[in-house]
């Protein structure tokens, strides 16, 4: 039985991962950035500098490809509404 009015809840997660292939992670992040529909004329930097940032910062690369929208896949009665993801070294 569904509630007539959905409730919005906050879910806070901290996930630890081990990066076993830094080059593969970075290549994936760069490929996603290149494929993204970004109007670089409206951004503070350009594609080349954004790629350089990803290549120089593994945490930034990981944070850019983490897909938190799938964390609740297969959970009945729950619909993902949005969120953010970031990664830190350590």
Question: Can you walk me through this structure?
Answer:
The protein has 90 residues and is mainly α. The protein has a domain at 22-66. The protein has helices at residues 22-35, 47-56, 58-65. The longest helix is centred in the N-terminal third of the chain and has 14 residues, at 22-35.
Give short descriptive properties of this protein.
single chain, 90 residues, mainly alpha, 3 helices, globular
Largest sheet: none
Helix content: 25-40%
Overall strand count:
0
Structural class of the helices, strands and pairings?
Answer: mainly alpha
Distance between the termini: 44 Å
List SSEs in N-to-C order.
Answer: HHH
**Gross geometry:** globular
Question: Counting H and I runs of at least 4 residues, what is the number of helices?
Answer: 3
User: What is the overall pLDDT average?
Assistant: 88
Low-confidence stretches: none
Topology (elements, then pairings):
Blueprint: H1 22-35, H2 47-56, H3 58-65
Helix pairs in contact: 1-2, 1-3, 2-3
Briefly, what is this?
The protein is an all-alpha fold. Helices cover 36% and strands 0% of the residues. Helix 1 runs antiparallel to helix 2, helix 1 crosses helix 3 and helix 2 crosses helix 3.
């Amino acid at each position: 039985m569904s509630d007539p009015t959905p409730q919005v809840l906050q879910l806070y997660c901290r996930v630890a991962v081990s990066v076993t292939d830094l080059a593969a992670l970075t290549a994936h992040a760069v490929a996603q950035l290149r494929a993204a529909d970004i109007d670089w004329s409206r951004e503070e930097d350009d594609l080349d500098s954004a790629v350089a940032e990803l290549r120089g910062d593994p945490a930034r690369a990981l944070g850019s490809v983490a897909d938190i929208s799938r964390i609740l896949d297969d959970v009945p009665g729950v619909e993902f509404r949005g969120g953010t993801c970031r990664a830190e070294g350590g």
